[in-house]
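Milestone M4 deliverable, item 7.
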Amino acid sequence: MATSIKLDPELKTRLQHLAEMQDRSAHWLMREAIRDYVEREEAKESFKQEALLSWESYQETGQHLTGQEVRDWLYTWGTNKETEPPSCHN
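Output delivered:
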């Protein structure tokens, strides 16, 4: 799939300069930037969808954890007293 991107002259110059400094092609830098952007946006969308599903589940069941319960559990990570995740409750 061939795609073209129109860049303003200033950005094109900056991109070319960066490519030269990193001994890469401008094309390689653009591909990396687009890949990073797509991965980041996919992760954000996945997080958003998971949050919506969690909210729907809470509305249906009332099952939840308090913020303090989660914090208390997280504080045990990497210690000798690391615990299993707490169970949800009403």
